Amino acid sequence: MTTTTRTTTPRTTPPRAYQHWIDGAWRQPEDGHYEITNPATEEPVGHAPEGAGAEIDAAVRAARAAQESWAATPPRERAAVLDRVADLLTERGPDLVPLIQAETGATLRVARGMQVPTAAERFRRYARGALEPDTVPLAPQPVQASALAPGGLIGAAAVRRPIGVVGCITSYNFPVVNLAGKAAPALATGNAVVCKPAPQDPLGCLELGPLLQEAGLPDGLYNVVTGSGAGTGEALVAHPDVDMISFTGSTSVGRRIAAAAGRTMKRTLLELGGKGAALVLEDADDRIRAAAVHSVASTWAFHSGQICTAPTRVLVHRSHYDEFVTALSRYAASLTVGDPSDERTVVGPLISAAQRDRVEAGVRAARAEGAEVLAGGARPAPRTGFYVAPTLVVNVGPEMAIAREELFGPVVVALPFEDDDEAVRIANGTRYGLYDYVFSGDAGRAWRLAARLRSGSVGINTVQRHPESPFGGCKDSGVGRDGGSFGLHAYTELQSVVWPS
């Protein structure tokens, strides 16, 4: 593991104090502001507004007032607005990247390549989505007369209708991208949105307000209320005029949202935690095993493991185990940790001191249970910032907490297995089921093995994604699916319309 030196630019202006974005205008917070901290420098990036119930209520009222007219807007006009949002995001990307990098701690490669461009891609995709057919015609059926109605030939259609007001509560790892993945399909299908970003890095989400307005989105359809604690999100979930909650974040918070949303029978889309397993079978040749090493190492190299789909557990057939963990250990040692604004940096900081401490506590607990830390395990230089070294843990039993619980950091655990049955048993032995992976020389065998994994997605010989595939989890990894055209279904109600032919 190598480190980069930190470079800092002298501050010429004080950090900006933001306001809430409600009904197309900035609104001064009633409860003041809280500081947003750069995870790499521990310096202030800006000040976010503290949200209260009154501000959530104002945002929801604005959304409700604007939604009906937007739903009646021709789909082609909605598509044009979303296309223009994508254009503006692409145009303004260079200006947004420094802010998003500073508040998330993402490396330049991640910030430039995925934080803003992927958000633009999502608005572009759902500009097309606004034009997808929303009606499924059903063949007429002869129906006998009954006490209910006369008989006859009955026609019908299933039609997707807007849900109404959608509350979007987003994650801290990809704040603008995650918000785009919710707001874009919701707006495409005629809904209005009230957004509550993660407290750690909401500033980029606030910056989207004027940009969407400039793109021609009517006021009231996109609102952002931020807050440092749970109260703002709780007020959004409890509001009687919110029809749906779309949440990405931890399973513990998702459980509370599901319980609260159930009191008013809100639709929920919950994208929660993961503990992805990468299964490396005995028939994996040298090329596939090398690909598996690089894929598992993405847990370290891609946003410091702060991604719910990361293959944080690697299950290796015992015939390859020693060789594989040696390769992984060398890989971890080769990664450059440090200043995320340095082009050479691969591993940046975690989002906060609290998250760093949580990850370090998980590694200490594993050691106490008898596991061995083969790489990493100590806080790296530089000392300023919330860094965790790329860490590989071996001699791990499937029952250990580190093999079962999500840490959300650059930590990989390696476990050997003897046969497919044991591999499946270990992979399925957590409460999560979001994204697993199978590396095998026999694609048919991998396909059959995927059917045995209780996971919302399975990658075969790759950690790459398909942009149109449905995304979501099983078990404690969530409820519902979005992505591609499935995102249009997620943010609409299905209405049956029936008539006599």
From TrEMBL:
SUPFAM superfamilies: ALDH-like
Domain Aldehyde dehydrogenase span(s) in chain numbering: 26-497
Protein name: Aldehyde dehydrogenase family protein
Example GO molecular function: oxidoreductase activity, acting on the aldehyde or oxo group of donors, NAD or NADP as acceptor
Family per record: Belongs to the aldehyde dehydrogenase family.
Keywords: Oxidoreductase
Transmembrane regions: none
PROSITE patterns with a match to the protein in the record: ALDEHYDE_DEHYDR_CYS (PS00070)
